[in-house]
Amino acid sequence: MNIQSIYSRISPHFRRRRMKAFLDAMRPPVSSPLLDLGGHPWGWALAGVSFPVVMVNIDIPEGAEQYAPKFTMIRGDATRLPFADGSYEVVYSNSVIEHLGTWENQQAFAHEARRVGRRLWIQTPARWFPIEPHLIAPFVHYFSKGIQRRLLRWFTVWGWLTKPTRHQVDAFLAEVRLLTAREMQTLFPDCQILRERLFGLTKSYIAVRN
Fold it and tell me: Rounded to whole angstroms, what are the CA distances from 58 to 81, 83, 100, 153, 185?
């Protein structure tokens, strides 16, 4: 078993529930494409959506072309989008903004999403949820990066299954920066911040401008 097989068992339930909430709340128009920052076409295909979707991603995954022309992938950086102001009716993103490494990059991402989209749905895991979702481990993300560097290999499911090198541990710590509710509100001041809960605890935040 590898870490991806665990993710594939856990995440679909939350993604289906989140997608239903998104579609019910936003009702994206079928006449114009939705912009997905950091997404992949198979998620939309599985959801059976009836509208076109444009996805911006740094890397285009193998096999994405089979979903064209309904689902289009563009290689690009979501912190510097090549689109005019307000050019998309809806901008969507699921669990991407926490992978940008720095607060400055997250600010740039939020600015571009707000600039390009007339309506927004931006989701991210909550920092204060006790289970770190990428590592599948309790509380480890509450420590400083110096302590995390010593814990990730031996005290997380990700570490046990992936057996990361020191370089991979450093790369993870440089990439993932989970956000608090206050930070999300700062990033998206004109949005309502919804809370997705699990066992009464806030599992993720969703910035919604509708």
Answer: 11, 16, 12, 27, 26
> Which of 133-162 are b and which e, b meaning 16 or more Cβ less than 10 Å from the residue's Cβ?
bbbbbeebbeeeeeebeebbbeebbbbeeb
Instruction: Say if CB 140 and CB 152 are below 8 A apart.
Output: yes
Helices within the chain (DSSP H only) = 3-26, 41-47, 103-116, 145-151, 157-162, 166-175, 181-187
Tokens describing residue 182: 């206050």
How do the domains of the chain map onto residue ranges? Answer: 3-131+176-209, 135-175
Q: Which of 122, 100, 126 is nearest to 113 (CA)?
A: 122
Name, in order, each residue with C-beta under 8 angstroms of 109's C-beta and a sequence gap of 6 or more: 37, 78, 79, 96, 97, 100
Class of 3-131+176-209 per CATH?
A: alpha beta
- Beta pairing partners, 180: none
10-residue averages of pLDDT along the chain (210 residues): 63 78 93 95 87 94 84 96 97 97 98 98 97 96 96 95 95 98 98 96 97
| pTM exceeds 0.90 | yes
